């Protein structure tokens, strides 16, 4: 395997993971409650707000207008 192939595989692998310390520090900008990480969709989920914040190139996009909306959980 070449260096370029190794780098490409490592980059792809790194995009699929989020630092647990970062996840602990981030909260939903609407509810100020903790978020959960959905590895399959690469999103940070706020179940009470009904928002899924995308992660692009390893960077969480915490803007409400960029979040995907879904039916929030009822308390």
Q: Which keywords apply here?
A:
75 residues; alpha+beta; 5-stranded antiparallel β-sheet; 2 helices; 5 strands; 23% strand; globular
Task: Describe the 3D structure.
With 75 residues, the protein is an alpha+beta fold. The protein contains two helices and five strands. It has helices spanning 3-15, 20-25; strands spanning 36-38, 43-46, 51-56, 59-60, 68-69. Strands 1, 2, 3, 4 and 5 form a five-stranded antiparallel β-sheet that branches. β2 (43-46) and β3 (51-56) form a beta hairpin. It is globular. The relative contact order is 0.16.
Oligomerization category of the chains in this entry:
single chain
Strand count, sense and barrel status of the largest sheet are: 5 strands, antiparallel
The radius of gyration computed from the alpha-carbon positions, rounded to a whole number of angstroms, is 14 Å
Task: Count up the helices.
Answer: 2
Low-confidence stretches: none
Beta fraction of the residues? Answer: 15-25%
- Rounded to the nearest angstrom, the distance between the terminal CA atoms is 52 Å
Helix content: 25-40%
* Number of E strands: 5
The mean pLDDT is 84
What structural class do you assign from the helix and strand content?
alpha+beta
Please provide the ordered H/E string of secondary-structure elements: HHEEEEE
| Overall morphology | globular
Strand and helix layout:
Layout: H1 3-15, H2 20-25, E1 36-38, E2 43-46, E3 51-56, E4 59-60, E5 68-69
Antiparallel strand pairs: 1-2, 2-3, 3-4, 3-5
């Amino acid at each position: 395997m070449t260096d370029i192939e190794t780098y490409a595989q490592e980059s792809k692998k790194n995009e699929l993971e989020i630092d647990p310390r970062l996840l602990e520090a981030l909260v939903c900008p609407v509810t100020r409650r903790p978020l959960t990480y959905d590895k399959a969709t690469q999103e940070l989920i706020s179940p009470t707000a009904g928002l899924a914040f995308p992660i692009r190139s390893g960077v969480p996009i915490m803007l409400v207008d960029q979040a995907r909306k879904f039916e929030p959980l009822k308390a």
